């Protein structure tokens, strides 16, 4: 279902995918995928289990390379052949498992593998930089000397997002950033996504949670069975229409229950588990 990008008139386009295909043996995980992300735009990517969301993230983060199709980054055609190549371009990914070291402190995790001085660790500079970064994100972290193990899920997500920003990326990809979080922590992470938008980053947020998508995304791109199945401006689309695009039906159990409850949101809460 080819569609004109409806992104952010005026904001420069950061990323444009066209005709992206990726198969694993006989399984076609992505077929003819399009995706556009502009500066300062939050694009939610939604879809049922197996729709291809994680595969798309992995193509963009250099974990998998696409079999065919084009990726333009800031108007230039690029190949993303490795995670290092993605980072070098300015695409940072916060994977769902966050990949933080529980026994290390916040500051150690932030700078793991990229200690400020190439010759020696400058603990003071790293600590100052950590505070600056967390303050810019309005993050609620008690101390940068706290071990990760002592932080809440939302605080960990914050640290992982902060770490992704150290390379000064143009695009930040968040894979299910709120899936494991409670209400207050979810609100904190959604605030963080808004900070990223204010700072001009393009954000791609994978999500199962329609309330989160409605709360924070500018656009929502629906994948279904490895294909594009909708590209909506969030303010113009109902939760039911998004769900219909996800399930491939305009009348289905989920949307009927949703309509019956008259909330348009309730049942999506129950499909959050991923
Ligand atoms: N490394 C792999 N090898 C073989 N098949 C894979 C591999 N990764 C993904 N697939 C297949 O590709 C399809 C898309 O999977 P993907 O993980 O991208 O879906 P998803 O949208 O992220 O789903 P979920 O919501 O369950 O995380 C599925 O059929 C999956 O089984
Ligand atoms: Mg996935």
From TrEMBL:
Q: Name one GO molecular function term.
A: ATP hydrolysis activity
Q: Which residues form the ABC transporter domain?
A: 15-250
> InterPro entries from the xrefs?
AAA+_ATPase (IPR003593), ABC_carbohydrate_import_ATPase (IPR050107), ABC_transporter-like_ATP-bd (IPR003439), P-loop_NTPase (IPR027417)
**Which parts of the sequence are annotated with region: Disordered?**
254-274
Q: Could you tell me the keywords of this UniProt record?
A: ATP-binding, Nucleotide-binding
Any Pfam family hit: ABC_tran
- Please give the name of this protein: ATP-binding cassette domain-containing protein
Q: Which organism is it from?
A: Pseudarthrobacter psychrotolerans
**Lineage of the species this protein comes from:** Bacteria, Bacillati, Actinomycetota, Actinomycetes, Micrococcales
